[in-house]
Amino acid sequence: MTHDEVVLDIIKRAEQNGATDLEIRGLEIEEVPKAIGNLVNLKRLTIRGTDIKSLPAEIGNLINLTHLNLSSNELTSLPPEIGNLINLTHLYLDYDGP
């Protein structure tokens, strides 16, 4: 199973369980699956230490998020839909580099 398949499986399980917290850490993925937008119950999302360079627009569906940790990734910008996260109080974007 590839890291991309592992992440998709994690997201599907989180959706089935109505998860409010999700952490994806240290996997060699370059993109976040659009299915992340189905996790509308999430309050905390951590995607840390991956190779992602951008987020899908579907991230804007996560209107219950209060904490979003995107540290230690390859992000260069955020999608405009990030503005839909009206409950977001904590956003982490630091990069510890190689």
Main β-sheet, in a few words? Answer: 4 strands, parallel
Globally, the shape reads globular
Count of individual helical segments = 1
Terminal-residue CA separation:
26 Å
Q: Estimate the strand proportion.
A: 15-25%
Mean pLDDT: 94
Category from helices, strands and their pairing: alpha/beta
What is the C-alpha radius of gyration, as a whole number of Å? 12 Å
Residue ranges: pLDDT <50 for 5 or more in a row?
A: none
- How much helix is in the residues? 10-25%
Number of DSSP-assigned strands: 4
Biggest sheet: strands side by side, in what order? 1-2-3-4
One letter per element, helices H and strands E, the order comes to: HEEEE
3D architecture notes:
The structure is a single chain. By secondary structure, the chain is of the alpha/beta class. It is 15% helix and 16% strand. The chain contains one helix and four strands, in the order H-E-E-E-E. It has a four-stranded parallel beta sheet, with helices on one face. The chain is globular, with a radius of gyration of 12 Å. The N and C termini lie far apart (26 Å). The model has no long low-confidence stretch (mean pLDDT 94).
